[in-house]
């Protein structure tokens, strides 16, 4: 009974694609200057919180209860961020200028322009410039850990683009200032980590969905096939959004994802199925979750090999994390599969708890 209570306690702390978006950035080189434009969720940064950890009650208290707090924090933010950003060219550290933050009125105006139920996140641009030495070299950037993973697009000349994910508080991979781009393979490997992290540890809603698919599959082979089918589905919709063929979904996608976990958990509790429709259903759920990935990434880019490499790496990373979830579930469940009580005391209760976790996520979304 204790493992079930522990799982129940865990799912009550989860949110499905919580109301936050990761930081994105664009770095452009022109006229001897490096210009970095970050799009950050401003209030959590001002409070010293990661976007994921910022509760709505704390944000409301900051935005509404002390009218002068926003202005004070914004006045302190430029020097703070300046000391946290790192710029390096071929091993030589460069001194960034003072960042430009939005004003308090601009932050409030952006919040007022959003629906009341979607007043957060407040994503606004923050810019910083840095003199660049002439000639060739390798450019690296570092951002404060509190911003989390940063998806950055390097435009070191008008006709080239490089895409890199920057882990929290770490240096980015080096990007050449001139010459050929980093290419498909290098971009793919760089985005593997971001895709894996989107599920573990950041996407426990997806881990719950993988658990439901594992519990509904009569064989381990079918569980892995459903995971692959799910990945193919979300790869398609994520790619369509990133390439601009579909618009990024609104907040409605989060309750739908939570509902998909409920449905998958209930179906698993009702019995295991080897039907081909189950495989098609996994792909269908993947199409839905891919829209959720796209909403979280909040990034659209015209076609290039770097974008293709980013998409491939991100999706492969997601699949690897999903396979790890299934493998872990195997280690916990399979030793008891031949016990007479396995179905009634382990598999079905776990499936119902997965559905209950989905219900909790649905309630949080609504």
Helix content: 40-55%
Shape category = globular
Distance between the termini: 30 Å
Question: Looking across the biggest beta sheet, what order are the strands in?
Answer: 5-2-1-7-8
Can you offer a commentary on this structure?
Helix 6 runs parallel beside helix 11, helix 7 (204-216) runs antiparallel to helix 8 (220-242) and helix 9 (253-270) packs antiparallel against helix 10 (276-297). The protein has a 5-stranded mixed sheet with strand order 5-2-1-7-8. Strands 4-3-6-9 form a 4-stranded antiparallel sheet. It is globular. The protein is an alpha+beta fold. Helices cover 54% and strands 15% of the residues. It folds into 2 domains: 23-180, no CATH class; 199-365.
Key features?
366 residues; alpha+beta; 2 domains; five-stranded mixed β-sheet; 12 helices; disordered N terminus
Write the layout of secondary structure elements.
Elements: H1 2-11, E1 23-30, E2 33-41, H2 42-47, H3 56-65, H4 69-84, E3 86-89, E4 92-94, H5 104-113, E5 123-131, E6 138-142, E7 150-157, E8 160-166, E9 175-176, H6 183-199, H7 204-216, H8 220-242, H9 253-270, H10 276-297, H11 305-333, H12 342-365
Parallel strand pairs: 1-7
Antiparallel strand pairs: 1-2, 2-5, 3-4, 3-6, 6-9, 7-8
Helix pairs in contact: 1-12, 6-11, 7-8, 7-9, 7-11, 7-12, 8-10, 8-11, 9-10, 9-12
């Amino acid at each position: 009974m204790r493992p079930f209570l522990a799982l129940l306690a865990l799912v009550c702390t989860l949110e499905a694609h919580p109301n936050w978006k990761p930081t994105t950035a664009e770095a452009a080189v022109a006229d001897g200057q490096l210009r970095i434009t970050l799009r950050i969720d401003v209030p959590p940064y001002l409070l010293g919180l990661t976007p994921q950890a910022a509760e709505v009650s704390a944000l409301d208290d900051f935005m509404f209860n002390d009218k002068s707090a926003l202005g004070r924090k914004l006045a302190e933010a430029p020097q703070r961020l300046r000391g946290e950003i790192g710029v390096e060219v071929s091993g030589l550290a460069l001194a960034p200028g003072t960042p430009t933050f939005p004003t308090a009125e601009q932050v409030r105006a952006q919040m007022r322009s959003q629906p009341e139920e979607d007043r957060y996140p407040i994503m606004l641009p923050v810019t910083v410039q840095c003199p660049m030495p002439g000639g060739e070299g390798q450019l690296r950037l570092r951002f404060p850990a509190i911003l989390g993973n940063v998806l950055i697009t390097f435009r070191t000349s008008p006709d080239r683009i490089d895409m890199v994910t920057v882990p929290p508080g770490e240096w980015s991979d080096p990007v050449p200032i001139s010459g050929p781009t980093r290419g498909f393979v290098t971009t793919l490997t760089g985005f593997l980590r971001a895709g894996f992290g989107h599920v573990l540890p950041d996407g426990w809603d997806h881990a719950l969905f993988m658990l439901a698919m594992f519990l509904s599959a009569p064989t381990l082979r079918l569980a892995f096939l459903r995971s692959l089918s799910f990945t193919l589905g979300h790869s398609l919709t994520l790619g369509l959004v990133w390439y601009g063929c579909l618009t990024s979904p609104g907040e409605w996608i989060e309750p739908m994802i939570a509902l998909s976990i409920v449905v998958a958990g209930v179906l698993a509790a009702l019995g295991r199925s080897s039907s081909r429709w189950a495989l098609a259903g996994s792909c269908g759920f993947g199409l839905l979750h891919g829209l959720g990935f796209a909403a979280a990434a909040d990034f659209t880019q015209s076609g290039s090999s770097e974008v293709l490499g980013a998409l491939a790496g991100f999706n492969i990373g997601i699949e690897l994390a999903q396979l790890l979830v299934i493998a872990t579930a195997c280690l916990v469940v399979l030793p008891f599969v031949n016990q007479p009580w396995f179905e009634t005391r382990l598999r079905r209760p776990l499936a119902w708890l997965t559905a209950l976790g989905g219900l909790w996520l649905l309630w949080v979304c609504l």
